Amino acid sequence: MHKHVFLLGAHDPVLLRELLATHLITVDLHDCDEYVAPEDEKEAKFSIGQAKFTFKDLLRPNCKDVKLRSDVFPVKRELQDNTQNLDLNTTARKGERGIDKFSPYLINATYAVLTAEMAYPIGSFNEELEMKKLLSQSGTSEPVTASIIDAKSPQALVNPKMVQSVTSVEDGVQSRLGSAAVSDRFNEQDAIFERMIVIIPYKAPETVAQIEQSFERINMAGLGLDNNRYLNTKEFNEEERRNRRLDFIGGIELMDSENRIYVFEGLGGEGRAMNQLYLDNLRQRPNDRKYKMLYNPEVRYKNRIYLDFNVMIKKIKLRDPLTKIMGAPDVYLRAKVPEDIYDTMQKFAEMRKLDRMTLVRDFDLFPLPERLLNLERKYGDSLSHEDLYGAP
Prior knowledge:
- This protein is an alpha+beta fold.
- The chain has two domains: 8-117, no CATH class; 193-389, no CATH class.
- The protein has helices at 13-22, 127-138, 160-177, 205-223, 229-233, 238-242, 273-280, 322-327, 339-351, 357-362, 369-379, 385-389; strands at 25-29, 47-53, 65-71, 73-76, 111-117, 193-201, 249-255, 259-267, 292-295, 313-318, 380-381.
- The strands form three sheets. Strands 9-6-8-7-10-11 form a six-stranded mixed sheet.
- Helix 4 runs antiparallel to helix 7 and helix 9 (339-351) packs across helix 11.
- The N and C termini lie far apart (64 Å).
């Protein structure tokens, strides 16, 4: 009957919704731990139980509480980190135990139950109604907290000259953004970024050329560049990285001898980068093995995740086909393939099976940049002319 209390109201509401929809809650169960002296804690290798839950149901309208059940699986408490060791370097792993005795959670059909209760359903808090209740209870007609005046609101009781001055300042900021930013107004703190997945065969020179040309044209127009060679050498400074209105496309490409998997991200909305990329690469037929596009303009995200790669497409070529790597027994041994590399390959393998962008978002299948670099170091190969441009 362990209990935790979290204050959700202090978090960013847009990011909170995204995290509840995509991330799993992991609960560790320490039930069979033996007593270990403090000086020997580092040597303890007891397995623990782990249960995973999703709070996605809390996003439903008028949902205040959920009761969830999950089986408990035994896992290692401390995983060995062999990312810096070679596969043949047995000396560096001589202290690692080859066989670990797990706790009998599965044998005993152990399960965990989690109950989540909220004071208000998400998105239903009415500040005006709550203030009226507070004023009626206090017996005063004056508000007890300072209110924020919105110059754009028609109900704002402010001087018209003030409204005009605020509007002129915003117009001045818009004019200084120039061609490197979108021209229309939108709330920068909302979920404004969209993502797109394109999967094509490795040998598809016309399609690769079309995607590359569209990518370069959109980014050159969005960043105000005259030559596409600047795209590969462009590095964002801190001010540009914080500018959420910068209208460009970033992304990655994972390729093997069978397929190319593109993952793009950028500003969403009519006339912006992702909308232009979609119009330039429309599907001519339903998704099949020759061309698959996963894109939904209603699925948006709070932040970019591939900003570290700047304006270039981060290209990674695998030495072996992804199906062959995932079919090898060694991929399930954490002593040979670390958890982060296995998780990244598993995400790409699952991505190729799905047909809806909503499923990709719900299963959190977008790989992180640092994990992509680890995958490249272990399984990556040098890039040829055909890898870069699609033609020998």
